[in-house]
Amino acid sequence: MIRVLLVDDDALVRAGLRMILGGAPDVEVIGEAGDGQDAVDQARAATPDVVLMDIRMPRMDGIAATEQLVTTYGDQVRVIVLTTFDADDMVVRAVRVGASGFLLKDTPPERLVAAVRAVADGEPILSPSITASLMARLGSAGDDGRATRARERLTVLTDREHEVALAVGRGLSNAEISKTLYMSVPTVKAHVSRLLTKLDASNRVQIAITVHDADLL
Question: What is the reported pTM?
Answer without folding.
Answer: 0.73
